[in-house]
Specification:
The chain is an alpha+beta fold and 285 residues long. It has two domains: 119 residues; 151 residues, Thrombin, subunit H (Beta Barrel). Helix content is 38%, strand content 26%. It contains two helices and twelve strands. Strands 1-2-5-4-3-12 form a six-stranded antiparallel beta barrel. A hairpin with a 4-residue loop joins strand 4 and strand 5. Helix 1 runs antiparallel to helix 2.
Length: 285
């Protein structure tokens, strides 16, 4: 029927008016003419005080209680507003800190690219990765540089860690890169320590197979694989990966070798397109 708040407010109002009424009666009794009966006025005044005092006490406490609640309410409102301001300030600070971290990481990557460019006398174009092929059957990425920037088909794509892939399609402003971990990719390569030559092809789980390595070659886990420069795409000496596992087949003349690429293809954000020839990075002994 009635809410608790309404009942409390009505009760306080009635109590207040009752107190005023009793005070009015008390004032009339205390202001009687001198010729009134003193005993009667004294007895009536004492009776009125006895009745009024508890109600005055209740009214005073009620008013103080309401005053305290009202004051605390405004304090809480003020605290809530201040808390909201602090939360917003903290959110802005966190966002700014995150932005600074991203800028720092981006600067570090670009610094590595710059060092690579200075170490190798070649013209490279830094591009941002803007998309990946959603199909698990194809390993390609889309970059934000194209024909208008000097990108052409079959140009190598690298990062300071090693080979990424090569351009297979180019439009005016965008290009598609075929990653070396794709099953249809192939890079002519050799083992840096022994100079044993073979072909790097993509495999599952972001790894590569090293095909056509003769069984007579001694291969060790951890050996570094680099490009041989004989495929006409990648210059000699670019890093590809490390030998992860080897297995001698019971028959046949080749070994089974798994290579772990140096490039983390899941974390590619920027790459370098080599738009002019890189000289051989090493000389065969």
């Amino acid at each position: 029927m009635f809410s608790k708040k309404i009942v409390i407010m009505v009760s306080l109002i009635l109590l207040f008016f009752f107190n005023v009424l009793v005070l009015f009666i008390s004032v009339r009794h205390t202001c009687l003419p001198e010729n009134s009966v003193k005993d009667h006025s004294f007895g009536s005044g004492r009776l009125v005080i006895s009745i009024i005092a508890p109600f005055q006490k209740a009214v005073t406490r009620s008013l103080r209680f309401v005053e305290n609640i009202w004051k605390h309410y405004f304090d809480l409102v003020s605290v809530a507003k201040e808390n909201e301001k602090l939360k917003n300030a903290l959110a802005r600070a966190i966002e700014k800190n995150n932005e600074c971290k991203e800028i720092k990481l981006s600067n570090q990557r670009l610094r590595n690219f710059l060092n690579f460019k200075q170490d190798n006398d070649a013209k490279v174009l830094i591009a941002e990765v803007i998309g990946k092929d959603p199909s698990p059957l194809f390993k390609t990425i889309i970059i934000d540089k194209g024909l208008a920037d000097g990108v052409k088909k079959c140009q190598p794509v690298v990062v300071p860690e090693g080979i990424v892939g090569q351009i297979i399609e180019a439009s005016k402003y965008y290009s598609k890169v075929h990653l070396i971990i794709d099953r249809n990719s192939a890079v002519d390569a050799l083992i840096q320590r022994t100079r044993a030559r073979g072909m790097i092809k993509g495999a599952s789980a972001g790894q590569c197979f090293f095909h056509y390595i003769l069984r007579k070659h001694k291969i060790c886990i951890g050996d570094v694989v680099v490009s041989s420069g004989l495929d006409g795409v990648f210059p000699k000496g670019l890093r590809i990966g490390q030998i992860l596992a080897t297995r001698q087949q019971n028959r046949g003349i080749f070994q089974e070798i798994i290579v772990r690429p140096f490039v983390d293809f899941e974390k590619l954000e920027e790459v370098m397109v080599v738009v002019s020839a890189i000289p051989n990075l090493e000389k065969s002994p």
